[in-house]
């Protein structure tokens, strides 16, 4: 979306959005029906592909947890107890929060699951809005991230060692002169 003469214009730029999603750019997540902000990229903690849902550790006050707890009887949510998440503005169901699960679903307990089909994302850097269903929110495994940081630290250390060596060589040369 862009602001232009007080109108909001919806636009999609696939190339920028694909790149932005891979780097997990700064974004806000909106109700697809009324554009109410539900969370932002800081609240996103992953994706539950089997449920086609975005996992969030934090949502705005415009996400209301339904008072009725439901029990899943079939499919992925069998033997789970959850409550629906609704948009405060338009009252549409935008996801669920799971209260009780079998051990295989322990990672989604008390996490907000926003249905990708019910939300859209506004990418701040590209001023673009896209349906969440076309983005991937998969996070890198921790081991992979640690290895990348380790490599960066080692490169910085090697560069500092080269600089230290040059400074030491110059100080020895200047003492001889």
Automatic annotation (TrEMBL):
<keyword id="KW-0498">Mitosis</keyword>
<keyword id="KW-0132">Cell division</keyword>
<keyword id="KW-0479">Metal-binding</keyword>
<feature type="coiled-coil region">
    <location>
        <begin position="139"/>
        <end position="166"/>
    </location>
</feature>
<keyword id="KW-0137">Centromere</keyword>
<dbReference type="GO" id="GO:0005634">
    <property type="term" value="C:nucleus"/>
</dbReference>
<dbReference type="InterPro" id="IPR034752">
    <property type="entry name" value="Mis18"/>
</dbReference>
<dbReference type="GO" id="GO:0007059">
    <property type="term" value="P:chromosome segregation"/>
</dbReference>
<keyword id="KW-0175">Coiled coil</keyword>
<dbReference type="GO" id="GO:0034080">
    <property type="term" value="P:CENP-A containing chromatin assembly"/>
</dbReference>
<comment type="function">
    <text>Required for recruitment of CENPA to centromeres and normal chromosome segregation during mitosis.</text>
</comment>
<dbReference type="GO" id="GO:0051301">
    <property type="term" value="P:cell division"/>
</dbReference>
<keyword id="KW-0131">Cell cycle</keyword>
<protein>
    <submittedName>
        <fullName>Protein Mis18-beta-like</fullName>
    </submittedName>
</protein>
<dbReference type="GO" id="GO:0046872">
    <property type="term" value="F:metal ion binding"/>
</dbReference>
<dbReference type="GO" id="GO:0000785">
    <property type="term" value="C:chromatin"/>
</dbReference>
<feature type="domain" description="Mis18">
    <location>
        <begin position="26"/>
        <end position="124"/>
    </location>
</feature>
<keyword id="KW-0862">Zinc</keyword>
<dbReference type="Pfam" id="PF03226">
    <property type="entry name" value="Yippee-Mis18"/>
</dbReference>
<dbReference type="GO" id="GO:0000775">
    <property type="term" value="C:chromosome, centromeric region"/>
</dbReference>
<keyword id="KW-0158">Chromosome</keyword>
<keyword id="KW-0539">Nucleus</keyword>
<dbReference type="InterPro" id="IPR004910">
    <property type="entry name" value="Yippee/Mis18/Cereblon"/>
</dbReference>
């Amino acid at each position: 979306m862009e602001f232009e003469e007080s109108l909001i214009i919806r636009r999609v730029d696939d190339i920028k959005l694909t790149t932005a999603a891979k780097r997990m750019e700064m974004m806000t997540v909106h109700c697809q029906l009324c554009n109410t902000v539900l969370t932002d990229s800081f609240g996103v903690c992953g994706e539950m592909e089997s449920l086609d849902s975005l996992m969030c550790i934090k949502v705005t006050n415009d996400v209301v947890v339904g008072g009725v707890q439901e029990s899943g009887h079939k499919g992925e949510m069998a033997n789970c107890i959850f409550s629906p998440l609704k948009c405060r503005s338009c009252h549409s169901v935008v996801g669920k929060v799971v209260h009780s699960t079998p051990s295989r679903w322990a990672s989604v307990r008390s996490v907000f699951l926003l249905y990708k089909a019910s939300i859209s994302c506004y990418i701040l850097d590209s001023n673009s809005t896209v349906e969440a269903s076309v983005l991937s929110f998969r996070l890198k495994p921790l081991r992979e991230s640690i290895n990348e940081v380790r490599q960066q630290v080692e490169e910085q250390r090697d560069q500092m060692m080269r600089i230290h060596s040059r400074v030491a060589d110059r100080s020895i040369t200047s003492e001889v002169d």
